Amino acid sequence: MFVKHAAKHYDFDISQTSENVTMNVQAASEEPLEAVRILLAGIIDYAGLFPPSQVSMQEAVLNYATYRHSNYNWMLGRFIVPASRLEEFSEHARDFIRPDSGDPWRLSALAGEDINATMKQVADFNRENGPGSVIDVLEVKASTMSKIENTVKILPEGVTAYFEIAMGDKFVDLVTVLAMQGQKAKIRTGGVTSDAFPSSRDVVRFVRTCMAANVPFKATAGLHHPVRCFRPLTYAPDAPEGTMHGFLNVLLMTAFARESYRASVLEDLMEEEFEEVFTFNLSGVSWRNEHHLTTGHLMYLRRRGMHSFGSCSFEEPIEDLRKLGLL
Question: Looking at per-residue confidence, does 6 or 140 come out higher?
Answer without folding.
Answer: 140
